[in-house]
Amino acid sequence: MTIRRTWLALGRQAVCLAIAGAFLVSAAVLDRSAGEESSEPPSLESIKASLDEVESGVDSEDVLPETLVRFRQTLNTATETLRARIDELEPRVHELEERVKQLGPAPAKDAPPESADIAGQREELTKQFAELDGELKQARVLSLRADQLSERVSQKRHSLYARELFARTPSVLDPFFWMDTLRAFPIELRNERAVFHAWMAERGDRLPWSAAVLITLAIIAVAIILSRWWFPRLLAFPTDTRSAKAWAALWVFVWFTARTPLATAGALFAFEALGLLTARVEQIAEGLLAGVTAASFAYGVARGLFAPWEPQRRLVQEDDATALCYHNHLVWSARALAVLIVSQVAHKTLFAPLIITVATNALFAAVTAGFLAHLVVRLRQIRKERGEPLVVAAWAHPLGLLLAVLIALALVAGYAGLAAFVALRVIVAAAAFGALYLLLAITQTLFSTIGEQSPKGQTLAASLGISAGTLGFGGALLSAGIRVMLILAAFLLIIGPWEVSTADLFDTVRNIPFGFKIGEIHLSFETMLTGAFLLLLLLVVTRIVQRWLETELLPRTRLEPSLQLSIVTIFGYVGAITAIGIALTGLGFDLQKIALIAGALSVGIGFGLQSVVSNFVSGLILLTERPIRVGDTIVVKGEEGWVRRVRIRATEIETFDRASVIIPNSEFITGVVKNWTRTNTLGRVVIKIGVTYDSDPVQARAILLEIAGAHPQVVQSPPAGAFLLGFGNTGLEFELRCVVADVEKSLSVRSDLHYAIIKRFREAGIEIARAP
């Protein structure tokens, strides 16, 4: 087995061991942190003093981002303490208030005095209530103040970050910039040597170092053993189905994401437990762990999703060259990001000159732009070799080219911070979307295996004592909830890692004096972009939920298909109306302005859109009351056929000639509609026949009843009837009346009865009378 193959490893036991180890490390760290904290919570006076300090410092012009981070921690602690205090005081205040009420009001001046015991108890309870109620009100005021200060701190941090993000720096083409960077680099090296010598002087004991090295080697050995012997056993199952591929991709993703970070965390925890880390070295070690985690996450996504050397378990439908291309670019971009994280933490810890930080951002952005450009070129080569367009490259090719050009232009123009920001978002978005695709696939696979149609689902439903349909309905809801949480987690990971928010960019865009006014409404680039984004997002969400209701949730219920269609249709229109209203609100329209627009529309409706509104309202009535349903056989306006679709304006009918007829909905409300299958599918068949006067009427009647009773489509209740209606010019006039089970088969039943009557009458010698 090659070295590359040895790093493929993990079994189920190893996964459990790794997760347990992570929990143990976390518990140990939390326990240590808890031991260092004071057991007594701060008082309200100390909280008020800390809030005063934050309020006086947050508006300072020279406040630093590190100070704002400290303010944020202070406010978080104060908020948690105040909320706990409020939760503790509220029931106590309520209890005292109830006890005071039970004593009743104090007697009036001219009323007889109450007993001394009651008076003393009233005074004591009133005093306690006043003290606790005052403390509760003070805690609530301080909590509101902490929330307001937290918002101000967030706005200040966003403003500082946006200012730093769009700050002008020297262009990467400026040679003096790189010369200054080289001159500043020895300063950081001196600081690094000083920190290293201080570290060795303070933590240079050989025995702890020997123990730490042995523990680190043991961790590496365990990782190698798990990689070599356990992981191949875990994946030793056929991956010929998508479900098997999804499970294999999940195990690969979990192992490669958790293996190196857990090993690194274990080694660092050993160094810390043995007292070998100073404050500055510990900060650099935390940065190293963050970088390793970022690189491992992307590597796990790439190996689990693309499987460049194992095409038999590849989850995405790509050829070997394309999969290897995406895998390599994602992995090396994430490694560049890991180097950036470690470098920035080291620069901050070692108090490096600012120009070195700027140069590091510029180099990271340039490397990322180079990876994007190489990805574009490589995809073009693969497309030429294959002779056909690539599915993913159809959008990856222009997007990668656009992002590479954007980063390059930002670097040339002197916006190194913006270039690094875009490069970081590109890498994080690629890894997050890959992980989202993988986890959504495994979610779909998991819930498909316990569906109501699967043997496992039926077994699980039987063991739980519920029906398979109920299990499928609950599984559909749970699956939707998990998908929503995964999408939200990916979205938050993309927009918000490392204390960066989308508000950082919009704060700068908001200052652009661009826009125009229509009456009292100011439309700017930001408001129009926000309104369009909200409208598009809500319409897409509405369509996704509508599709999910139609295909996954409602089919698992016991609702009729027509009612399911009504629910889906009404939900679609309600979602569209809600999206339009929210988008108009985002543009600055308030409810009164929207009401004015609706009033203006009503005037136009009154003049020329009566029929449109009538059909629209009629459609809502049809969807709500459901006098006709999808699949019903109806007769309306001389047209007879099946109802195929009920829309908000018109209803589609398929006639027996297989022609589609569109009928406005108002015809179903104001006109007469015959619905053959509204309550049931029964239908009556009437056959008129005459026999000559020489025939036996009793025998003719018996034959008719026998023929009707023998047909499988004729129901027995109500029974068929044969009636002698009169005496015609050429013979006796009989009428056979019977009810068929399916009205749509009445024509074939009538034909069968005709054939049977002719045959039986001839056998019995009964002559059918000729028509006059």
What topology emerges from the helices and strands here?
Layout: H1 3-6, H2 12-36, H3 44-58, H4 65-103, H5 116-165, H6 175-202, H7 206-234, H8 242-273, H9 279-306, H10 320-349, H11 354-386, H12 393-413, H13 416-449, H14 455-464, H15 468-495, H16 503-510, E1 515-518, E2 521-524, H17 525-553, H18 561-586, H19 591-608, H20 610-625, E3 633-636, E4 639-646, E5 650-655, E6 660-664, H21 666-670, E7 674-675, E8 683-691, H22 697-710, E9 721-727, E10 732-740, H23 746-764
Antiparallel strand pairs: 1-2, 3-4, 3-7, 4-5, 5-6, 8-10, 9-10
Structure keywords:
disordered N terminus, five-stranded antiparallel β-sheet, extended, 772 residues, three-stranded antiparallel β-sheet, alpha+beta
Proportion of residues in helical segments: over 70%
Strand content: 5-15%
Mean pLDDT: 79
pLDDT under 50 segments (min length 5)? 1-38, 497-517
Shape: extended
Structural class: alpha+beta
Description of the structure:
The protein starts with a helix and ends in an 8-residue tail after the last helix. The strands form 3 sheets. A 5-stranded antiparallel β-sheet has the order 6-5-4-3-7. A 3-stranded antiparallel β-sheet has the order 8-10-9, with helices on one face. The longest helix is centred in the N-terminal third of the chain and has 50 residues, at 116-165. The chain has helices at residues 3-6, 12-36, 44-58, 65-103, 116-165, 175-202, 206-234, 242-273, 279-306, 320-349, 354-386, 393-413, 416-449, 455-464, 468-495, 503-510, 525-553, 561-586, 591-608, 610-625, 666-670, 697-710, 746-764; strands at 515-518, 521-524, 633-636, 639-646, 650-655, 660-664, 674-675, 683-691, 721-727, 732-740. With 772 residues, it is of the alpha+beta class. A hairpin with a 4-residue loop joins strand 5 and strand 6 (660-664).
